[in-house]
Each structure stands twice: as structure tokens, then as C-alpha cells.
Amino acid sequence: MNNYLEFEKSIAELEGKIEELRHLSGSGDVNIADEVGRLQGKVEKLLVQAYTKLTPWQKTQVARHHDRPHAANYIEGLIEDFTPLAGDRQFAEDKAVIGGLGRFRGASVVVIGNEKGFGTEGRLKHNFGMARPEGYRKAQRLMKLADSFGLPVITLIDTPGAYPGVDAEARGQAEAVARSIETCLGLKVPVVSVIIGEGGSGGAMALAAANRVLMQEHAIYSVISPEGCASILWRDGDKAEDAADALKLTAENLLELGVIDAIIPEPLGGAHRTPQAAIDTVGSAIQGALADLSGHDGGVLKTLRREKFLEMGSKGLS
What is the pLDDT of residue 299? Predict the structure, then answer.
């Protein structure tokens, strides 16, 4: 792993030494297995120490890690016979939102996700996961398709927020986000959403008005990014760390507040260190959530989903 976060400097140094020793072991008769094992043990201890007490700002960094699995990785790892569907049938195709039909552990589903893309070219292609109105209208089209055929909907959330550009606003960005939330709430099929990285503002909520909202251990979910919050409250982007503390954006915070329904544990060191293990764990969590919802009538699913969101924020109010 080449991309280390700021708080992982000591881990990076040890893993660098391990790589040097492994290189030496292949070039001579020196047996350094014991030393490698000792250093690897120290790395695991440091990972435990670091990842059991991450600050909200550190969790934000982990959620945005370059190597963290994206929606496309989860679809590839969990969805068989995936057939992507493109376009909103009104204006254009938006690659910041991907989706289509497939089979999840033997059952037909519709899956929709925010895709940030990898590398400079990929990120530009997918607009860093920030959808324009046509992306949300594509999502609405796929959700309505799922409703028509009685297929469960799985959504994978990973976006800084809806794209704020002039062109998006001109084509009705706010309306598209609102309609997407309305469509989510009106479905008569099970809807399971997973926050797999960064859940930002209405751009995330547009795909996350679900019966079950699951969140990975080191993901974040908030009404605004820490940087955006800092620029508004303090007019100083350097106070993003303070904003992250105040926003209550971690999975633990949001479970306590009742915004999400469950936390999905990540491998030691975060999903970016062991992507396949993270993907498998998310798959098991989705399977369990769908099993819990499978016995409900469509009308009941719709009612329960609406009541769930109407009750948010009412705790403690007389």
C-alpha cells in the first residue's frame, strides 16, 4: 500500500522496513523471517492503537482514502450478471451515478451507486462522484423500474454532495434531488442503502431514504463537508478538523442519533487495506437487511420507511 494517511507515518516506516527486508531475503542466504514477523506484529499493534481511537477528522481522511473500494468495486464483487443501464431519458448520461440490474446472492436486484472514479482520468470522467440532475433522474428511472418488477433496491453512497455548478442548477438540481428522495420514499420494494465512503448532504440523501441505512465503520455522513462547514462558520477552511468534531458525522454518532440503523465493521486498518474482506462484509450486511425486510408487504415497507424518516430528530421532544 503506497498511500498512507498523515496519522499512519509510523506504520508506513515499519512497513517500508518490512519491504526492504523481504527484498534482501530474496537476494541471499540471510534468513530474516523472524525479524519480519516481529515487525509485522508491531504494525498490527500500531494499527489497533490508531484505528480504535480515530478522531472524526481522521475518519474523514479514511473515508476519502484513494484506495478505498468504490461503488464499482462493490458491484463487481457482489453483483452477478450485472447489466448497467445508462441515461435519464431526458438529457444525458451522468457517470457520477452508476446502476443497473443484476443478481445479488441468487436474487434479482436493482443496484445504484455514486462512483468517484480512480486516478485523475477516472475522477474527471465520474465528476468526483458529484451527480448532476441527469444522474438523479437516472436513479429515479432505475428505482421506478425496480418498483414495477418487484425488485429490491440496493444503493451505495459515496459522494461529497450534488454537483453545485451553474449548468446543474440551470437544469434543476434541487428539484432532481428532491424528486429522488420522494421516489425513494414512495417505493413498495425493500430499499437498503450503504454509506461506503463519504455521504455528503442532499446528494447522498437522494439515494439513501431507505428502509435500512447501513454505514461502514470508517465512513462519514453529514449535511455538509467539514471544509464547507468551516468556511461558513469560521470563514476559515483550516478549521475543518474542528468542524468535523462538531458535525457528529461518524457512524457511532449517527447510530446513537438514530440516523442510521447499523454499523458495518471494517478490516483492521480500514477498507482500503483489505478491500475484498470489506466487500464481503458489506455483502453479508446487505443480505441480512434484505432478509429482515423480505416478509413485509409493499404498502407496509413504504409506510415504515416514511415513518422512519419522519421520526428522525423527534427524540426527546415533548
Answer: 95
